Amino acid sequence: MRAAVAVMMIAGLCGAGCTNSGGFPRRIAAASATEENIRWAIAANVAASPHFGSMSIIGTARLTDAMISGPMRRASFFGDGEANSYCVSATMTVAGIPQPKSAYASVVHGASAVDVKVSPGWCTGTHPFPELEIVSSRR
Q1: What does the longest C-alpha to C-alpha distance in the chain come to?
Q2: Domain range annotation of the chain
Q3: In this model, does residue 19 exceed pLDDT 50?
């Protein structure tokens, strides 16, 4: 069983099902899309992404010194609503080894829901992002 899970992790077949966002919603209804709820959704999606250590096999990844920049408004690439991009950066520590990490979180405002998509990239957040550290501590 362990071997099958390891193969799924390595092959990238787990997706959102193998990650833990600390009990925080990763998708929110459009009617409740406040700035605070969007920040929590960004934090849950970033913490659940493999780039930020959600699938670490050598230990639990902890995120510290989390920062965020944005929103930067732009038209959605897929034409399904307005999108805002945020830059998220943090220090990921696994097995006592710190690594700087950053990614772009694209928040797409659709008709019925707000979705967050995380893409690895190099950027630097400028404002404290305690929500990410809280979600990271609960996974």
Answers
A1: 45
A2: 2-137
A3: no
pLDDT tens digit sequence for 87-134: 999 999 998 999 999 999 988 877 778 888 888 889 999 999 999 999
CA-to-CA distance for 21 and 42, rounded, in angstroms?
10
101-112: buried (b, 16+ CB within 10 Å) or exposed (e) per residue?
A: bbbbbbbbbbee
CA angle 36/61/134 to nearest 5° reads 25
Helix (H) or strand (E) holding 102, with range, is strand 97-109
Enter the pTM of the model: 0.75
Cβ-count burial 7-36 (b if 16+ within 10 Å, e if not): eebeeeeeeeeebebeebebebeeeebeee
Contact between 69 and 132 under an 8 Å Cβ cutoff? The reply is no
**What single string gives the DSSP state of each residue in 42-85?**
HHHHHHTSGGGTTT-SSS--EEEEEEEEEEEEEE-TTSSSEEEE
Are 122 and 88 a contacting pair, CB within 8 Å? no
Q: Would you say how long the chain is, in residues? A: 139
- Closest Cα to residue 117, out of 101, 104, 106? 106
